Each structure stands twice: as C-alpha cells, then as structure tokens.
Amino acid sequence: MAEQARVLVVANRTAESPELLKALRERATRGPCSYTLLVPQTPHGLAWAADRAAGHDEAEHYRQAFIDELRDEGIPLDEAKVGDGDPLAAIQDECNFNEYDELIVSTLPLRMSKWLRVDLPSKARAATGLPVTHVIGSET
C-alpha cells in the first residue's frame, strides 16, 4: 500500500474556487494524500501597509468556507489554519513545524494577484524544496 502524501494547500481569496477543488480531486487520483489548508491573513488595500493583521477576519472566513466546501464535496481535510500575513513566511513557518510532501498554491489570475506579482509559487518551491502545483483560481 502506498504511503499517504501530505499536501499543504495555500489559498486565500481562491479557497472556494472550482479550479482549486478540481486540482484537489485530480491530486487525489494520483495516490493517497491528506490535505492541510493554510490561509495567509493577507490584508488588502491600504491595510496592507497600515495593519498587517487586518486580514485575519477575512482569512478566517475563507478558512471556514473552505472546510464547509470540502466537507460538501467529500474531500478529506486534516487541518485548516490561518497563517502569517506574508504568504511566503506563512508557508515557511508551516513547513518548519510540520512535514509535507508537496504544495498546492492557489492564486488569482496575474492581473489581480499580489502573490503572482512576487512569484510566490517559485519562491515557495525554492524556500521549501517541495514540488509546487500552481492553480489559478477565480475569486468566489
């Protein structure tokens, strides 16, 4: 029997996107896996500069909605967490304290995504040494 892969899923505004759900279903077809969701509490607008913790309530909303969505879809989720406002720091923190086999990073399309403007998928790969699947999701 194949060992279960631990997959860290990193998403914020795309947490409930059909594109991310499809990617999770497709990943599950490649072999046994368990998912942990990490939602960085990334603030938006002026809050980005003024108050780095301003995104916590929104991140908590996405976290809970994602849990509900996965439950409805029958996709098992081990844990769902809110992380640091800096998505790369959130990923590094999570990977320093837990072991993962791969990452799935879900972003908005380039024209809307702060995460893509800083090339988060590549930086996450370099920082963790893990394979990264990048999903471009829609905001729900």
Description:
It is built from six helices and five strands; from the N terminus they run E-H-E-H-H-E-H-E-H-H-E. Strand 1 (5-10), helix 1 and strand 2 form a beta-alpha-beta unit. The protein has a single domain, classed as Rossmann fold. Helix 4 (87-97) runs parallel beside helix 6 (120-128). With 140 residues, the chain is an alpha/beta fold.
Quick summary:
This protein is an alpha/beta fold. The chain has helices spanning 18-29, 47-50, 56-73, 87-97, 114-117, 120-128; strands at 5-10, 33-40, 77-83, 102-107, 132-136. Strands 3-2-1-4-5 form a five-stranded parallel beta sheet, with helices on both faces.
Kindly list the characteristics that best describe this protein.
140 residues, alpha/beta, five-stranded parallel β-sheet, 6 helices, 5 strands
